[in-house]
Write a structure and sequence with these properties.
The protein is α/β, with parallel strands linked by helices. About 35% of the residues lie in helices and about 25% in strands. The protein has ten helices and ten strands. It has an eight-stranded mixed β-sheet, sandwiched between helices. The chain has a two-stranded antiparallel ribbon with strand order 4-5. A hairpin with a 2-residue loop joins strand 9 and strand 10. The C terminus is likely disordered.
Length: about 300
């Protein structure tokens, strides 16, 4: 039965890779690594056959993009953090049929979205790090989406998310949708970043993050979606929080009502605000009537 069966907002901090390795940082981010393992278990318990990751480390400058490769094989080293994330091997099966259906649906909804089967279009670490720790069954397929279109609006991402949900509900697949990115994302200045891995860069950002999570846990999504464009800019949200906008677009946006459950409560990483949260999926029959309404807030 076609269905979105699971939704979550997750972290992808590279220090988690160091946390699982022998050495002085072993276990330093066990809260996050265990949280992602819990998410993986929940995805499998929900019966998902495909995981779609909205990846804020896949930056696009024109249009939204979907990686619809049949298979992903490679070894990844981060150009951003080569000392933390180096030579990570990966192998996942893709889902081209669903990837192209999602891209068509978003384009038909008025936001240009392109699916690809390019053999050398690899995965970014916003996809790879969560998948590494989720430890999913090898039969579960993967689709990665550019979670940061640099010159798009929050409303466009909302519409893309709504269209993705429509495509998923018609697809014949059971899908988990994962928004991969931080909350606030002001990393410490270079001269202090290596010495302050567990401290926030700006107390204003922490307070905004905590208020946002209060709204999430209370199911006050009309208020959160109204503040999202300003919040993303004021607190330097990762990828301007387009992953979150797509996720909430798929769940009903301001009409979404369910409170989240925090898998890993709020924590700080190198100045940024992080969380792992599960967002209950409400029935499409109730969400669909509001999913494609025009939102007033844009960015």
């Amino acid at each position: 039965m076609s269905q979105l069966v699971y939704a979550a907002k997750v972290t992808h901090i590279p220090r988690m890779i160091l946390s699982e390795q022998p050495g002085p940082l072993h276990g330093c981010r066990s809260d996050a690594t265990e949280g992602l393992r819990t998410v993986g278990q929940q995805i499998m318990e929900a019966g998902a056959d495909t995981v779609v990751v909205l990846d804020t480390h896949w930056l696009s400058n024109a249009a939204y993009h979907v990686n619809g490769a049949e298979r992903f094989d490679g070894v990844f080293t981060s150009s951003e953090f080569p000392t933390q994330l180096s030579e990570l091997p990966y192998t996942y099966e893709g889902n081209p049929e669903l990837a192209f259906a999602m891209a068509r649906a978003a384009s038909e909804a008025g936001v240009k979205t392109i699916a690809h089967q390019k053999s050398h279009l690899g995965l970014e670490y916003g996809t790879l790090v969560p998948l590494h720790f989720m430890q999913l069954d090898a039969r579960i397929r993967v689709i990665s989406v550019s979670g940061w279109c640099a010159f798009s609006t929050i409303d466009e991402s909302r519409r893309v998310g709504a269209a993705f949900r429509d495509a998923i509900e018609r697809s014949g697949h059971r899908v988990a949708l994962i928004a991969s990115g931080s909350l606030s994302h002001r990393i410490h200045d270079n001269h202090e970043v290596l010495n302050r891995p567990y401290e926030i860069s700006d107390e204003f950002n922490r307070q905004c993050d905590l208020r946002a999570l209060e709204l999430w846990q209370a199911g006050r999504w009309a208020e959160f979606t109204a503040m999202l464009p300003s919040y993303a800019k004021a607190c330097t949200g990762e990828g301007w929080m387009h992953d979150t906008a797509m996720l909430l677009g798929a769940l009903g946006w301001s009409h979404y009502q369910s409170p989240v459950s925090l898998v890993t409560p709020y924590f700080v990483a190198s100045g940024t605000g992080q969380v792992i949260a599960r967002l209950p999926v409400e029935p499409w029959s109730r969400v669909a009537s509001t999913c494609f309404a025009t939102a007033e807030a844009t960015v």
